[in-house]
Amino acid sequence: MGADIRFPHLGIEIENLGKTISIGGFSIAYYGIIISLGMLCGYFMAAAQAKRTGQNAELYLDLALWDIIFAIIGARIYYVIFSWDYYKQNLIEIFNIRGGGLAIYGGVIAGVITTFVFSKVKRVSFLKLLDTTCTGLLTGQIIGRWGNFCNREAFGGYTDNLFAMQLRQSDVNSSYITDELLQNIITLDGVNYIQVHPTFLYESVWNICVLVIILLYTKHKKYNGQLFLIYLLGYGIGRVWIEGLRTDQLLFFGTGIAVSQVLSGLLAAFAAYLLIYKHRKSEISSKN
Fold this sequence. Notes:
Layout: E1 5-7, E2 12-14, E3 20-23, E4 26-29, H1 30-52, H2 57-81, H3 84-87, H4 104-122, H5 126-151, E5 165-168, H6 179-183, E6 186-188, E7 191-196, H7 199-217, H8 226-245, H9 259-287
Antiparallel strand pairs: 1-2, 1-5, 3-4, 5-7, 6-7
Helix pairs in contact: 1-2, 1-5, 2-4, 4-5, 5-7, 5-8, 7-8, 8-9
């Protein structure tokens, strides 16, 4: 009865979109499949970027194996820390990641630390590794956000804009449904829908733009670490905006302040400062 997901102003209706697929009696979440696909494609993108810039692509396979493991752990730890009010009462759920609960910034932080250790062991440039892997990271983020789409999560508040998305109320975690969304419930064929910002889509498209900029700028790179700074600036700016729309924000303990929004703003400001500083320094050097 009724579509599972609707984009009314675009004329798109998705009739049957489950959250899992059953193989041999074992249930596998689409979220996990999509995240895995994002990681695989992210590696291939980083390897292609390595070849393009004259590096050893096999080095990035070794790095990917370590980065993926510790990025997943970091993403989970970050999520659990800022959802501790729930997990302190459900400790066993800390280890259940099949239903989601991974925070990208935790993965990025863990990935950067892992890359730093890897660079020391392999005796290669840490900043060059970051410049190359940020293209893979963005690719993984672009694809991975569609896992949130399948899970009916990471959406924003009410909107009636062109890209407004309608979700069955019964398919959504009730803790993500705000009073504003409840006040704008839409009933079609006896089914209640909430109408929201598809923030997963916004972030995926934004990241495509950031990735294109980085790929185009690669041949103009002036120093190691520059591309990673562009990533931090571009992704940070987009995330500040998008995080402000979401209804499932991770908050600082006892406050209404969104952790990822603040962190995004700080990282974007830090990256902007370094990019400007490096640019001015190079201009002074060229004049001398």
